[in-house]
Write a structure and sequence with these properties.
The protein is mainly α and about 500 residues long. It folds into three domains: about 140 residues, no CATH class; about 160 residues, no CATH class; about 70 residues. Helices cover about 65% and strands about 5% of the residues. The chain contains 21 helices and five strands. Strands 2-1-3-5-4 form a five-stranded mixed beta sheet. Strand 1, helix 13 and strand 2 form a beta-alpha-beta unit. Helix 1 packs parallel to helix 3 and helix 7 packs across helix 8. It starts with a helix and ends with a helix.
Length: about 500
């Protein structure tokens, strides 16, 4: 409590705030939280200009890990997000220029997002109402015994919960249920500090209740109940979150690497389908001959520079179209007036040039999603069970080594399936169904039927898709019978 001690703690906190900000921008919320606490605890402390200056210096010192970004990027590493070796790209990277801030927040959306936060809150503990009750008791006790600590935790919760909800604005009200679920999953990680805050308050509330209970037996009863709550929550969460046998991303990479021929090109358009390939290629050094691309990141100039640095022979034939896109997108990236339609036109032209030049060079092209018609153009997609292969119409079907593919634990009740595992299961199901349709068109009845039956298992979470497979099975039987009848001489 001496002035010297307070100054040392103040400088340490400023330094740690810089470190946390270097980790993630959401830590900015701690600045108003800690400032509110400090002004409540010792308002006179901040009347010194010298303290503000030294505090700012320590804060900037805490930001020094950012210097690693341009130094590392200058080596052109395989993982080089944002290409922050130039001042412009460095500032864009640390300020999240690529993402920006969501717009269009309304009170209706905000209340719906708060409701989603409440659902997430209910999943954190085995007995969430008890935890919330103890947290309320703890907050009241802090205001009673040390008002500044009460202010600290109240601000902590408000900024980590409602304010974070309002600012991040991941819309969960949109009509697309899949996109709404994705937004809910994305924002869920931002709420972790609020769970920590409530856990600390609940511990304080338990201590306050223990202290106030007059009968020792009641104290032991309370301790036992809280112990059961803690152990039960740990056991429940472990069962839900145990990922020791979470092999879905590993198997996804294995399957793609098994199916895609040498020097193939794989287009992805979503992190879960792209980042696993980065890991297995750049860390485990598997199938480095494959060029994996993220179509969404192709909208960013830094990503195109990354391609130029690491795949110059792939990029060079399409440089005219690439340069046209970079020129078109520059005003958008510089926050200047731009023509969105022209940017999109150049963007599609660049992608098509990359595809055309790759095919001309003998590189097979695969997609982990359905490309838009302006990318597909005159070509057709062929299901390879783990991705779609781009083919010329009328080309023979490409064999797929089904016996070498791995689909472990998708139907193992002992392995918890999170949202992404279910997404991958449905992904395989749709590809199996598409492959079955292609086999049926070629009168390969048995293989088509086997694929339809497998697809029905993988699509079990989508009743409408299961119904489509059942219709396809019925149609398949009718076609097979019809062709058999024609083959019988009259």
């Amino acid at each position: 409590n001496t002035p010297g001690e307070r100054t040392r703690y103040f400088l340490l906190i400023c330094y740690l705030l810089g470190l946390t900000l270097a980790n993630h921008t959401t830590s900015l919320m701690f600045i108003p939280v800690l400032l509110g606490f400090a002004l409540t605890e010792a308002p006179r402390f901040f009347l010194s200009l010298r303290r503000w200056i030294t505090g700012l210096g320590m804060f900037l010192l805490g930001l020094t890990p950012y210097l690693y970004l341009p130094l590392s990027s200058a080596r052109d590493p395989w993982m080089d997000w944002g290409d922050p070796e130039t001042l412009t790209n460095f500032i864009r990277t640390i300020t999240r220029h690529q993402y920006g801030l969501p717009e269009g927040q309304t009170w209706g959306k905000f209340l719906a997002e708060l409701g989603a936060y409440g659902e997430l809150l209910g999943q954190q503990w085995w007995g969430t109402p008890v935890v919330l009750l103890l947290a309320l008791v703890g907050l009241m006790a802090l205001f009673r015994h040390r008002r500044s600590y009460g202010v600290l935790f109240l601000l902590f919760f408000l900024f980590a919960g409602p304010v974070t909800t309002y600012v991040t604005h991941f819309d969960v009200t949109m009509g697309d249920a899949f996109a709404a679920a994705e937004n809910k999953a994305l924002v869920s990680v931002f709420y972790i500090p609020s769970y920590l805050c409530l856990g600390m308050l609940a511990g304080t509330g338990m201590f306050e209740a223990w202290r106030r209970l007059p009968i020792p037996a009641l104290r032991y009863l309370l301790a036992g109940m809280v112990g059961i709550l803690v152990v039960g929550s740990a056991a429940h969460n472990y069962r839900q979150l145990d990922m020791s046998r979470y092999t879905f991303t590993e198997d996804y990479a294995h399957n793609l690497f098994t199916v895609v021929p040498e020097n193939g090109v794989v287009f992805a358009n979503w992190d879960p389908y792209y980042f696993p390939l980065n890991y297995y290629q750049f860390v485990e050094q598997r199938r480095r001959d494959i060029i994996a691309l993220d179509q969404q990141l192709l909208r960013r100039s830094w990503y195109i520079q990354w391609l130029k640095d690491h795949y110059p022979e792939f990029v060079a034939p399409a440089l005219p179209e690439i340069d046209a896109f970079l020129k078109a997108v520059a005003p958008f990236e510089n926050r200047q007036p731009y023509d969105g339609n022209y940017i999109q036109q150049c963007y599609i032209g660049m992608i098509n040039a990359l595809i055309d030049r790759a095919l001309e060079a003998g590189r097979p092209v695969y997609f982990t999603y359905l490309p838009t018609p302006d990318i597909l153009r005159h070509r057709a997609l062929e299901s390879a069970v783990v991705a779609f292969r781009l083919k010329n119409r009328g080309d023979p079907i490409t064999p797929v080594p089904l016996e070498q593919l791995r689909f472990r634990h998708f139907f193992d009740d002992a392995v918890p399936l999170d949202r992404m595992a279910r997404v991958f299961r449905a992904y395989y199901g749709r590809l199996m169904f598409a492959r079955g349709e292609q086999q049926a068109m070629r009168q390969q009845w048995e293989s088509a039927r086997a694929l339809f039956l497998q697809a029905m298992k993988f699509l079990r979470d989508d009743p409408a898709a299961v119904q489509r497979v059942q219709v396809a099975l019925s149609t398949l039987e009718d076609l097979r019978k019809s062709f058999s009848d024609r083959a019988v001489p009259r």
